[in-house]
Amino acid sequence: MERDAIAGDRPSPGVPAGRPPRGVVLIASSLALLGASLLLAGAPGDGPAAAWPSLSGPYFGQRPPGLRAEMFAPGIVSSEHHDDGPPVFSPDGKECFWRVNGDRDGARRTGMVFWSREEGGRWTEPRLLEFSSPHGAGIPCRRPRTGATPESTSSPWYVDRTPSGWTEPRTLHLPIGGRRLGIFTVGADGALLCVLGDSAATPGGTRVFRMHALEDGFAAPEAMGVVPTEPGQVVSVPAFSPDGDTFVFTTRADSGFFLALSFRRPDGTWTVPRLLGDDINAPPQTKFGGFSADGRYLFVVSNRASPKSNPRKLWRTDVFRGPQREPLCDVWWVDARALDALRPGAGGAAIPPSDPGDRPCAPFRSS
Prior knowledge:
Number of helices: 0
Strand content: 25-35%
């Protein structure tokens, strides 16, 4: 259940270890943007798309969702392919990155990162980022295309912007002592919020950390407390709200993968995680949560049986072609205020059920 990540727009690292990158960070986990708005150089496109619409305004001009989950950007981000991760927008909302898995004549293409930005008040047709090469096998950018290997499995990769595109991936050094950084979220203050590879073994639950941004890199991990997960419970692809006070992660429940969340209390402790309501956690599986840069919306990936759409793309690419294999997933979004129903004492009124037969929002539990 790994996903690639991009983050960027910190001071240029050059060669020194630990310096945050100016461009994009690649991690086998998630998509996340560092710093201010991104000014990307044009990447090679895949040719014009006759059906590409004229889109303007925030989030591709999509109407913001309410307390019910809605499909996000049908035919743009949600498509007939396996959308393996929530979209990530730059802080100014004018650029979007998302990852797609799919097939080309029966050959699997995974981890293809696409990008669009608003130019002259209109969103550009999505383009494949050049470092996300469709010609290699497996997840791209886990290592440089030159064949070099990372200094440790805990090191993410980054690429810098150049006038003509992107550099080759390089190692981003973090002060984590050889522990595996599976995923991070970039907080509103530029800090990295994360779960480290050995933290799941913490007595009493899952330990979470913050690494503050410095001028020359990032500070050593600072404990943010322990989320009281159960022994042996799956805690995968975690994500934090920008303020660091809401923790959403993928777990196994009811013979599938669904999302659970925990809230950080004022005293620094965390609430017992609970599964999200059925309107968000629609079966057979809903996973890979992520917040918008302002924390107002939650994005999730779901192959929900109803409504099952997988709309055809409104843009052209030669990366994918022919029949696409199951499971096909779409991206859904919801107003983050819907999560308030799971706060202790909230009464559970904010998350409406999908239909009268839905199971209620259940307590977090082991499989």
